[in-house]
Design a protein that fits this description.
The complex is a heterodimer of chains A (360) and B (255). Chain A is mainly α and 360 residues long. Chain A is 73% helix and 0% strand. Chain A is built from 15 helices and no strands. Chain A has helices spanning 10-18, 20-40, 48-59, 72-106, 119-132, 137-162, 168-191, 198-206, 214-233, 235-241, 245-250, 255-277, 283-295, 299-323, 331-350. In chain A, helix 5 packs antiparallel against helix 6 (137-162). The two termini of chain A are 23 Å apart. By secondary structure, chain B is an alpha/beta fold. Chain B folds into 2 domains: 1-66 and 148-221, Rossmann fold; 77-145, no CATH class. Chain B is globular and about 55 Å long. Classes of the chains: A mainly alpha (360), B alpha/beta (255). Chain A binds chain B through residues 10, 13-14, 17-18, 105, 108-110, 230, 233-237, 239-240, 242-244, 246-247, 249-253, 296-298, 300, 353-360, and chain B through 45, 49, 52-54, 68-70, 72, 75, 77-82, 85, 89-90, 92-93, 95, 97-101, 123-125, 127-128, 145, 151.
């Protein structure tokens, strides 16, 4: 994980904002480094030179390709096993980091994560139904997506029914929807056959990148890249959404519509992530806090930083999960194991600082 | 003189037939200051929302010429924006939905801060500014949005005596030096008397008195407004005629 800058004095805080753009560039470099290093990590280590050549050979036209001086095993390990898995972790991490930063800004609440609206529990529920009835892969993804959107729609309808303006109805509706879907998880597990179905359901709920393949990357990439790009374009608007309702509206912002647009984009990303890798908790909650310590609170810099930090975090966490022991540790367990103490630490550090990360 | 704000038979209800107020009428010339007085829960914020165009009147006519901007009361932001980040938000209407503020927007924000002597604080955390500086920064934000009308919610609340005087002086200068039309709410009739040209009293749901501050802020009107006896005192201090308004009902059975 990245080192957290200490910024106890105002002068340092000011100097530190001046370098905010280079900080994002540094994060980008770190992301590339972690990505390349992870391709070499594992039971069959591959040298960096070979990895880069294999990557070039994958994306360059025939005549430009470097001559193959690597082994066929290396090619298979890097291309078929590691690359999809690392891409999946990077996309999931970037998506979750982006969602978390957007939601925390928009809801003016540091404790909000992408699980907030029950989207991930809804999506997980859809996936569990597919596993329970032995549906094929594509149906599992579709079912997870539908579950996520049913959750978002339910939260939306509940918030509308409360008729109050502002954030509280959305948050409360999210808690209700989330609790309902969690109850459904229990019900599905209870009714599932303990021998054949229950293990699959439990693994699904834990979240893992072990089953990564190119097909899953192809499912995750379009929603994360499209919705993520839109969120990045809206990043300054999220500054405005973080103001008081009346204040933002008086500045000419149509807060209601914009807020639901952001929520829909978040739902798309989270549902896509859950449909390929199950629930990966804590990432969307902690990553924005870490990113805020690196680049400050302005969402124009925070959103890109959060996406990159999320990707770095999940790639690294998955590296640890798959190399630490002979038997893999599922990513969902690792993120929670790392996430809870890190969050406690961040909370303790930031308590006197208004959770902004870079206040003196 | 042209009117900046004009309303007639104005009424608003959030739920059907639950009127916050109705049949309100007033007119404010350009470059003048109006003070809005009313008891808690009378609907001051609703009237401000209408003026800002955040909500629309249920009934009646409302004409606001030009753009109205808002400077909220004890603005608190949980997120650590710099003063410049915050003032830049005033450009919301000038920046496309999917675009980021340009260098020109940033320059406009810096120029607005400079006008209030806050250029040096641009990169500092907004939360680290003093109360008065925060208010100035919020007014700068209103100016960056190219507003002609500034609406302030209790600009002198929660300030000590010296800062109250400074805040009032700032508001007076917005109209005098910057040519802006100003509407502010207050619970201090004396403040209204000191700097406002017009006073608007929200006496009751259907009872609204608007007119020159000196006339409208009479003992009879204020006694009705606050439901407690009010006294207007005139005295001389170093040759200057001073006026202050104070409640005299302490110990009265109605309190």
């Amino acid at each position: 994980m990245t080192t957290l800058p200490d910024c106890a004095t105002e002068a340092r805080a000011t100097a530190f904002r001046r370098f905010a753009l280079p900080r994002n560039a540094a994060l980008a470099l770190l992301l590339v480094a972690v990505f390349l290093a992870s391709l070499g990590l594992g039971p069959y280590p591959a040298p960096l030179g070979h990895i880069i050549k294999i990557l070039f050979s994958l994306c360059l036209p025939e005549s430009w390709r470097p001559t193959a001086d690597w082994s066929a095993v290396e090619q298979t390990v890097v291309q078929v096993i590691r690359l999809p898995r690392i891409l999946l972790a990077a996309l999931a991490g970037a998506g979750l980091g982006l969602c978390g930063a957007s939601l925390q800004g928009m809801m003016r609440n540091p404790l909000v994560g992408p699980d907030l609206l029950g989207i991930s529990s809804g999506a997980a529920c859809g996936g569990m139904i597919a596993i329970l009835f032995d549906w094929p892969d594509w149906a599992l993804v579709a079912s997870a997506f539908s579950g996520g959107f049913v959750a978002l729609l339910a939260a939306w309808a509940l918030a509308r029914a409360a008729r109050g303006a502002g954030l509280l109805p959305i948050i409360l509706a999210g808690v209700v929807v989330s609790a309902f879907f969690t109850a459904l998880h229990g019900l599905i597990q209870y009714t599932a056959d303990a021998e054949s179905k229950l293990p699959a359901l439990v693994y699904w709920l834990i979240g893992s990148f072990a089953a990564a393949n190119a097909h899953k990357v192809a499912i995750l990439a379009p929603p994360v890249l499209c919705a993520g790009a839109l969120l990045l374009l809206l990043r300054w608007r999220i500054n405005l959404l973080s103001l008081d309702e009346m204040d933002a509206q008086a500045l000419g912002e149509r807060t209601g519509a914009l807020r639901w647009l952001v929520l829909a984009l978040v739902a798309l990303i989270v549902a896509a992530q859950v449909s390929v890798s199950g629930i990966v908790g804590w990432v969307g909650l902690i990553v924005p806090h870490v990113a805020r310590m690196i680049v400050g609170a302005d969402h124009r810099r925070l959103l890109p930083a959060s996406a990159m930090t999320g990707a770095i975090f999940l790639i690294a966490a998955d590296d640890i999960g798959r190399t630490l022991s002979a038997q893999e540790l599922p990513i969902g367990i690792l993120t929670a194991l790392v996430g809870a103490p890190v969050f406690a630490l961040l909370f303790w550090r930031n308590q006197a600082r208004n959770w902004t990360g870079d206040r003196a | 003189m042209t009117a900046a704000i004009e309303f007639d038979r104005l009424g608003h209800c959030y739920q059907r037939d639950h009127w916050v107020f109705r049949d309100y009428a007033a007119r404010l010339e350009r470059g003048r200051i109006a003070a809005l007085l009313g008891r808690n829960g009378r609907g001051k914020t609703t009237l401000l929302r209408l003026l800002l165009g955040v909500i629309f009147p249920t009934r009646g006519e409302l004409r606001v010429v030009g753009r109205a901007a808002f400077a909220p009361q004890n603005f608190q932001c949980a997120i650590g924006y710099s003063t410049l980040d915050l003032v830049l938000m005033g450009r919301a209407r000038n920046v496309g939905l999917l675009s980021q503020p340009s260098r020109r927007d940033e320059e406009a924000a810096l120029a607005a801060l400079d006008r209030f002597g806050l250029a040096g604080k641009a990169r500092q955390m907004f939360e680290q500014l003093s109360g008065g500086q925060k208010q100035l920064a919020l007014i700068a934000r209103a100016l960056v949005s190219q507003a002609d009308i500034i609406v302030l919610d209790e600009p002198a609340a929660a300030l000590d005596m010296k800062n109250q005087i400074l805040a009032l002086e700032r508001i007076a200068s917005l109209a005098r030096d910057h040519g802006l039309t100003v509407v502010f709410t207050t619970h201090h009739p004396t403040h209204a008397l000191e700097i406002a040209d017009e006073a608007w009293l929200m006496l009751d749901r259907c009872d609204f008195v608007a007119g020159p501050a000196d006339e409208v802020l009479s003992e009879a009107n204020l006694t009705r407004l606050y439901d407690t006896p009010m006294k207007r005192l005139v005295f001389e201090h170093e040759g200057r005629r001073m006026e202050t308004i104070t409640p005299i009902g302490r110990g009265a059975p109605s309190l």
